[in-house]
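F.,

This is the one I mentioned.
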């Protein structure tokens, strides 16, 4: 529901979350000075890793190679980076790394940077490798993370955030009448729609009523769905789950006992798990297109556990595409420099001794990458740094069958449409010119190197090619 059907006004929502978290941190003993923190909506991107050991926010590629490392608001240079990560690499360890999967975690990422920056630069604290100290007091970067996470979780556990949104929905959530049109067309095409949300019924009812209740006279929001499940506790829903219960929509109370089915329309259910839910709606896996915004809790889990088709909502995609279009000249320059670099090296082989000076081209590429990154945010694009894809981008590519900035884009396609990605060439395929006979090309290379070997090395990407 959240960030899928209900599109949040993220700047307003995140500012509220950030401010409430600061208030909570002060309540548990943090300095009053942190009241002066000002929220920056252009700081974080999805997919950042927080290293609890050293207090660094990391932007990494799919393999754990570090693209950007920030300690507070200080971007670490190469020599500083090697001090913490000798190979500019870190492997994922759930005990050490926290991955910022969702838009909800943008305020958390920025608040962590604020807190680390505050203590690292305070004259009252001495900076240590894994935290800061003052007299007999030591605060580890892991403790800072735990406090920030707990301060935000506290707002949800106490229903503070939900209450504020429910009291002033228009301030925090955008309304689009096309949502009702999409849901109607789903059912017109003999498909069923279900709502599966972690929110409780009280909050879900308030949000969905705002989005749908007044679109068509005498029709409530539940009538747009065949099944409604709240309190889903994802990602637990995709494992053992919880007890499935029916909710009394008049009293908002859960019925006693476990619901044994079937699931009925215009009813609301709480909890359950994916196996029970699938049996009750008679689904078999790939007959479901599941739309969600959480790359792990929604997309990866539903894909791995039930083989559901997945549709990831990435609201920031609109901004990404806009900047990519505006800065296309910079991308073109970078591609030309990469081509120039390849051409400088293409005629060398294992007999070559003198390496050409490529430092100027590499510097130009690095400057372009920096210019492009700064157009997006403090950490650059959500999907790449230069020509390198991010950890988040690799998860999208692997687990999301389709992705878009909004589910409403489905309105532009017929329901029989086949979404098919463009074929991607492997490195050894991308270096072969179909119009150039492969045998001639290989013979040329063999003659040039005066080698009798049965293999040659493709100079463009070091792919081994058999003769």
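My design for it:
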């Amino acid at each position: 529901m959240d960030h899928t059907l209900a599109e949040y006004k993220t700047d307003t929502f995140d500012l509220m979350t950030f401010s409430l978290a600061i208030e909570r941190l002060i309540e548990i003993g943090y300095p009053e000075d942190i009241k002066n923190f000002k929220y920056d909506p252009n700081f974080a991107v999805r997919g950042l890793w927080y290293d609890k050991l050293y207090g660094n926010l990391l932007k990494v590629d799919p393999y754990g190679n570090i693209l950007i490392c920030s300690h507070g608001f200080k971007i670490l240079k190469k020599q500083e980076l090697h001090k913490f990560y000798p190979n500019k690499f870190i492997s994922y360890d759930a005990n050490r790394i926290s991955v910022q999967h969702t838009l909800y975690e943008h305020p958390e990422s920025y608040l962590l940077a604020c807190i680390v920056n505050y203590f690292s630069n305070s004259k009252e604290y001495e900076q240590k490798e894994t935290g800061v100290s003052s007299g007999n007091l030591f605060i580890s970067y892991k403790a800072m993370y735990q406090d920030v996470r707990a301060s935000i979780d506290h707002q949800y556990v106490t229903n503070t955030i939900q209450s504020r949104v429910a009291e002033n929905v228009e301030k925090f959530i955008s309304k689009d009448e096309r949502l009702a049109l999409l849901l109607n067309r789903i059912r017109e095409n003999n498909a069923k729609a279900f709502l599966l949300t972690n929110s409780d019924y009280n909050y879900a009812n308030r949000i969905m009523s705002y989005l749908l209740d007044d679109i068509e006279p005498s029709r409530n929001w539940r009538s747009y769905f065949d099944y409604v499940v709240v309190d889903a506790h994802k990602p637990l829903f995709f494992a053992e789950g919880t007890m499935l219960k029916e909710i009394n929509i008049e009293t908002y109370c859960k019925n006693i006992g476990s619901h044994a089915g079937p699931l009925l329309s215009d009813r609301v259910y709480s909890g359950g798990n994916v196996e029970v839910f699938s049996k009750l709606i008679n689904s078999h896996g790939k007959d479901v297109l599941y739309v969600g915004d959480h790359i792990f809790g929604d997309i990866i889990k539903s894909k791995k556990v039930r083989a559901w088709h997945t549709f990831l909502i990435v609201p920031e995609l609109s901004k990404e595409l806009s900047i990519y279009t505006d800065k296309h000249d910079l991308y073109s320059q970078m591609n030309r420099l990469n081509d120039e670099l390849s051409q400088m090296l293409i005629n060398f082989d294992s007999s070559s001794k003198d390496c050409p000076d490529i430092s100027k081209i590499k510097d130009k590429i690095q400057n372009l990458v920096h210019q492009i990154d700064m157009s997006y945010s403090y950490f650059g694009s959500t999907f790449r740094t230069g020509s390198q894809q991010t950890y988040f981008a690799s998860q999208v590519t692997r687990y999301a069958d389709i992705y878009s900035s909004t589910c409403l884009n489905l309105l532009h396609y017929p329901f029989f449409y086949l979404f098919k990605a463009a074929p991607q060439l492997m490195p050894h395929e991308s270096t072969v010119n179909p119009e150039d006979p492969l045998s001639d090309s290989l013979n040329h290379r063999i003659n040039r190197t005066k080698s009798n070997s049965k293999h040659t090395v493709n100079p463009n990407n070091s792919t081994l090619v058999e003769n």
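The two ends are 55 Å apart (CA to CA).

Talk soon.
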